[in-house]
Amino acid sequence: MRTRWTPAFALTAALLAGSSARAAKAPADKTYEQLKLLVDILGYVQDNYVDEMDSQKLVYGAAAGMARTLDAYSQFLEPDMHREMKTETEGQFAGVGLRLNVKGEWLTVLTPMPGSPAYRLGMLPNDRIAEIDGVSAREMDMTEALKRLRGAPGTKVKLKVLRGPEEEGEGAWKSREFEIVREMVKIESVVRLKLDGGVGYVRIIEFSAKTVDDLTGALKQLKKEGANSLVIDLRNNPGGLLSAAVETASLFLGGGKLIVYTQGRRAENRQDFTAGPKAPYAEMPLVVLVNGGSASGSEIIAGAMQDHKRAVVVGQRSYGKASVQSLIPLPDGSGLRLPVARYYTPSGRSIHRDEKHKTGGISPDIAVDITPETEGRLYAQWETIYAKDEKPRSAVKSEDSVRDEALDRAAELLKAREVLGVLKTAPQTP
User: Fold this and answer.
1) CA of 288: how far to CAs of 22, 184, 245, 307, in Å?
2) Who's near 190: CB < 8 A, 6+ residues apart?
3) Spatial separation of the C-alpha atoms in residues 98 and 108, rounded to whole Å
4) Whether the Cβ atoms of residue 413 and residue 420 lie closer than 8 Å to each other
5) Residue 143: is it exposed, middle or buried by C-beta count within 10 angstroms (0-12/13-18/19+)?
6) Which CA distances in Å does 358 have to 222, 311, 314, 319?
């Protein structure tokens, strides 16, 4: 049997060379034989499979299969997926500034991002993307569309869109064309609101490289508006950068307090993450909201606040993802997302999800049960729609909105605390 040594086997061959020395030192090590088996299978497929196969596709498939055998959080990322992952964690990308969804067979604008090139040119929610640079976008999948819309800053992309009120039918849709110059577009990771009774509200969508700056700006603005207490909403926040979650907690925890520690395979791999000596918002009354979609970085913050009795945690049990993941770049532009440690709350709690025993996650101090249907409707109404020369609005009409019971409970707790504080300090009549 002849093995065809194409460039696709170069990496595997290098691995074999490194493995040979180890095998000589440790005869019991089966790594050499196992890697040889992989090379043999690739060779058999290339020489004998009924159809011609792309060798890179075979290697990528083997890498993806290897990652899948580890756990649900390990993943081999082909170059396009790797670039997209880095974009999310960096908190910005070069493109036109559109958030898209799929309606039927059409890629449809959910909203242009405020201040983006698409926003300034007047693209609107519900515009249908008909063509991208002359290529039909009808039935185009989201991955392909994002690949065509994003590019280097200063480059141009031509869009043909269909615009018209849906209730008037297909015939009412009119064609418009836009030539858009790509720019760096910032991904908003923090939403702020001023609620009644001096209560501030921030929703952290995910933890990216821009989150702490966004949050600091939001908190300063809320203080100017008279907020003297705060709700941090981490519901449906899947996590993100560990460093961003630690820096976020440090805004509210001072005194060098332990925020989280990570533990790898070996005992010496423990790493502690602590707050600074002073925190700018150490005294601000605080409630943290979580639910089943709160994971990783969200749970680090909730767990630290709970262990240090710094905040009341309200909502539903969080997801239970306690793995620290490294995004490892590979020479051809692909990447490997790999858990390298688990994190623990300051008191040593592991909140890692155990599917078998249905345990894990952060249990709230005050549980607020919400049906999945209501949660879905809440998630939809959080979506903000932007259009040039119009006031931002919810994606859901006010008459279709539902009450946010968890947020209401959090605000009530903070207002009650304020009232009790006033009663405590008021002069007493004998």
Assistant:
1) 51, 32, 14, 13
2) 202, 203, 204, 205, 211, 214, 215, 217, 218
3) 10
4) no
5) exposed
6) 39, 26, 20, 11
DSSP secondary structure code for residue 121 in this structure: T
* Structure-token match 């605390």, residue found: 417
Cβ of 245: how many Cβ atoms within 10 Å? 28
Which residue's entry shows tokens 């155990």?
354
Residues in the chain: 430
- Which spans in 150-273 are helix H? 211-224, 242-250
Instruction: Measure the CA–CA gap between 422 and 430, rounded to whole angstroms.
Output: 18
Q: Which residues contact 55 (CB under 8 A, 6 or more apart)?
A: 6, 7, 8, 9, 42, 46
Q: Taking the chain, what is the end-to-end CA distance rounded to the nearest angstrom?
A: 102
- What pTM was estimated for this model as a whole? 0.72
Quote the CA–CA distance of 336 and 404 in Å, as a whole number: 39
| Adjacent-strand bridge partners of 258 | 274
Q: How does pLDDT run along the chain (430 residues), one tens digit per residue?
A: 333 333 333 333 333 344 444 444 554 467 888 888 888 999 999 999 999 888 899 999 999 999 999 987 888 988 888 877 776 666 566 788 888 877 778 888 877 877 788 888 888 878 899 999 999 998 888 878 888 998 888 999 999 999 876 544 555 788 999 999 998 877 778 989 999 999 999 999 889 888 999 999 999 999 999 999 999 999 988 888 899 999 999 999 999 999 999 999 888 889 999 999 999 999 999 999 999 889 899 999 999 999 999 999 999 999 898 888 888 999 999 999 898 999 999 999 988 887 777 778 999 999 999 887 888 788 778 877 777 777 777 878 888 889 999 999 999 999 987 655 544 444 444 4
Q: List the catalytic residues.
A: 296, 307, 321
Task: Please answer whether residues 300 and 242 qualify as being in contact, where contact means their C-beta atoms are separated by less than 8 angstroms.
Answer: yes
* Both structure tokens of 363: 């249990």
